[in-house]
């Protein structure tokens, strides 16, 4: 469900900004074509970064299209610089080179923290780990942002959209909202508010303890909520609606309060974002992340283990017992490569002229193919418009139409996603703040979408 909402959202985004010629979409009953085999978290087909974190094996061309997911690595990440954070359009899948991938604008703060920023005309920042976690204890030490419509999130999200959340709305600094989802399916009973003292003024450590049998949400060492797997049986689907697949750690700051978002979303977030707020500094809203600690638990008993480098899926059911741990390790040769064909590198033969003079013959095959989810035709765009290394800032900040596209893109992302969701399951009352779970479902997915779209304007 989230997938289809997000598909619509991104389709709208892409058509608004007109960077993608004709991106194929993917979702239930619609796999990606061989030419653009990887289904992004947003329901669009592409190559390159589409095949990395968030690539959904269920809707990709083959089970090998998505690059295998790097296995869990226990580590204490001191987030005090940007050294360990790769921009999403530069990361090719080598998790030994960067532990984090960013969309949007992370900012180093005083050698002691990383700020997730959200400036006017942007849709915030998303950080995701390059290593996955298949059960473990994950802690984030942070202060949230504040203000109407401003949402801070610390979540676990798998490529098939199993999800475990801590979310913080900027008008309620006394609660963390806990939630979980199974394969992106909306469930209205999964959310719960957890009491906490002022999340802006006080640094707290939020912990997700995730085992095959239970999830426990913990704040500053106090267990606040436990969800057992055995209480999540879904007799329709004939399985447990319990997060059970390898997941990335994600931290994000995003605007729920954009005028074009669904009314319920805006209400949930506490109203429209004030872009001249006293809560902004240096021109942006920010959440401050000091540390993320990942303690990996052993793979579940009975896991199909033939190696120790990566997680892959053996079956489209994408349940726990279709995950295998293998030796296969894939680093893409370029943003035109895929899990099926990792060595593609159109620039390999003419790398002395990587900029606007790139041969149109090599582009003719790749120009139609999207390479960075949320930014889309970036491969073609960066190759044609500027040298790939500086394409981001140069490309998007200098052109007026990036600025213009910002509001329509983020807003169409929000509004198509949310309004479809609100409409399809029973009308307006479901969009009311009394039903935060559905909004949160859209919210988390859109948090990622909008953060990616934010690249367009940064
Ligand atoms: C959590 O608190 C918010 C207010 O901040 C409220 O709107 C929402 O209904 C609460 N959610 C649950 C599950 O109680
Ligand atoms: C059970 O699973 C089905 C199929 O995925 C889904 O449509 C339904 O919403 C689920 N039920 C609940 C209560 O989540
Ligand atoms: C998968 O989950 C089922 C419960 O649904 C459990 O019995 C089984 O042991 C699990 N297998 C693995 C490999 O985790
Ligand atoms: C275990 O995983 C390997 C590698 O993906 C796969 O080839 C094999 O079929 C799997 N075995 C079972 C019993 O699922």
TrEMBL record:
Signal peptide interval? 1-23
Q: Which residues form the GH16 domain?
A: 62-284
In terms of CDD domains, this protein maps to: GH16_fungal_CRH1_transglycosylase
Q: List the EC numbers from the record.
A: 3.2.-.-
Instruction: Enumerate the UniProt keywords alphabetically.
Output: Cell wall biogenesis/degradation, Glycoprotein, Glycosidase, Glycosyltransferase, GPI-anchor, Hydrolase, Lectin, Lipoprotein, Membrane, Signal, Transferase
Residue ranges for the region (Disordered) are 337-443
* An example Gene Ontology CC term for this record: fungal-type cell wall
Could you provide one GO biological process annotation from this protein's UniProt record? Answer: carbohydrate metabolic process
PROSITE patterns on file: CHIT_BIND_I_1, GH16_2
| Topology relative to the membrane | Lipid-anchor; GPI-anchor
* Compositionally biased tracts (Low complexity): 355-366, 396-422
Q: Where is it mostly found?
A: membrane
Highest rank taxon of the organism: Eukaryota
Q: Where in the cell is it found?
A: Membrane
Keyword match Hydrolase: yes
Bias regions of kind Acidic residues — which residues?
340-354, 386-395
What is catalysed by this protein?
Random endo-hydrolysis of N-acetyl-beta-D-glucosaminide (1->4)-beta-linkages in chitin and chitodextrins
GO terms of molecular function: carbohydrate binding; chitin binding; endochitinase activity; glycosyltransferase activity
Instruction: Indicate the residues that form the catalytic site.
Output: 163, 167
Q: Note the PANTHER family from the entry.
A: GLYCOSIDASE CRH2-RELATED, GLYCOSYL HYDROLASE-RELATED
Entry's family note? Belongs to the glycosyl hydrolase 16 family. CRH1 subfamily.
What job does the chain carry out? Dual chitinase/transglycosylase that plays a role in cell wall architecture. Chitinase and transglycosylase activities are coupled. Required for the polysaccharide cross-linking at the septa and the cell wall. More specifically, transfers chitin to 1,6-beta-glucan in the cell wall.
Identify this protein by name: Crh-like protein
> What organism is listed for this UniProt entry?
Lineolata rhizophorae
Lineage of source species = Eukaryota, Fungi, Dikarya, Ascomycota, Pezizomycotina
């Amino acid at each position: 469900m989230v997938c289809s909402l997000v598909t619509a959202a991104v389709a709208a985004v892409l058509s608004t900004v007109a960077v993608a010629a004709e991106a194929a979409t993917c979702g239930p009953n619609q796999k990606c074509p061989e030419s653009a085999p990887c289904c992004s978290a947003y329901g669009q087909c592409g190559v390159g970064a589409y095949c990395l974190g968030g690539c959904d094996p269920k809707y990709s061309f083959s089970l090998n299209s998505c690059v295998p997911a790097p296995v869990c690595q226990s580590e204490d990440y001191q987030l005090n610089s940007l050294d360990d954070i790769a921009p999403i359009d530069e990361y090719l899948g080598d998790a030994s080179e960067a532990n984090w991938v960013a969309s949007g604008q992370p900012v180093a703060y005083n050698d002691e923290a990383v700020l997730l920023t959200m400036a006017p005309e942007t849709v915030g920042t998303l950080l995701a780990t390059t290593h996955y976690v298949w059960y473990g204890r994950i802690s984030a030490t942070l202060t949230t942002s504040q203000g109407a419509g401003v949402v801070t999130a610390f979540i676990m999200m798998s490529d098939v959209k199993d999800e475990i959340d801590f979310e913080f709305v900027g008008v309620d600094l006394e609660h963390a909202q806990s939630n979980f989802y199974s394969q992106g399916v909306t469930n209205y009973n999964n959310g719960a508010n957890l009491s906490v003292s002022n999340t802006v003024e006080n640094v707290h450590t939020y912990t997700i303890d995730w085992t095959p049998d239970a999830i426990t949400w913990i704040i500053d060492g106090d267990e606040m909520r436990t969800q057992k797997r055995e209480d999540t049986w879904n007799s329709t689907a004939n399985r447990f609606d319990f997060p059970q697949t390898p997941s990335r750690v994600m931290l994000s700051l995003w605007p729920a309060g954009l005028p074009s978002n669904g009314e319920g979303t805006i209400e949930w977030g506490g109203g429209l974002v004030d872009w001249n707020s006293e809560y902004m500094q240096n021109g942006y809203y920010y959440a401050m992340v000091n540390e993320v600690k990942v303690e990996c638990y052993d793979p579940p008993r009975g896991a199909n283990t033939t190696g120790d480098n990566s997680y892959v899926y053996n079956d489209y059911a994408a349940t726990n017992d279709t995950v295998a741990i293998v030796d296969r390790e894939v680093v893409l040769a370029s943003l035109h490569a895929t899990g099926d064909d990792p060595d593609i590198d159109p620039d390999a033969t003419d790398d002395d002229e990587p900029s606007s003079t790139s041969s149109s013959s090599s582009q003719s095959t790749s120009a139609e193919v999207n390479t960075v989810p949320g930014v889309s035709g970036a491969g073609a765009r960066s190759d044609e418009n500027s040298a790939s290394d500086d394409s981001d800032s140069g490309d998007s900040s200098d052109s007026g139409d990036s600025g213009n596209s910002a509001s329509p893109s983020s807003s169409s992302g929000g509004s198509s996603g949310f309004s479809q969701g609100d409409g399809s399951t029973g009308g307006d009352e479901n969009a009311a703040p009394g039903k935060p779970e559905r909004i949160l479902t859209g919210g988390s997915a859109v948090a990622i979408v909008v953060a990616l779209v934010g690249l367009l304007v940064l």
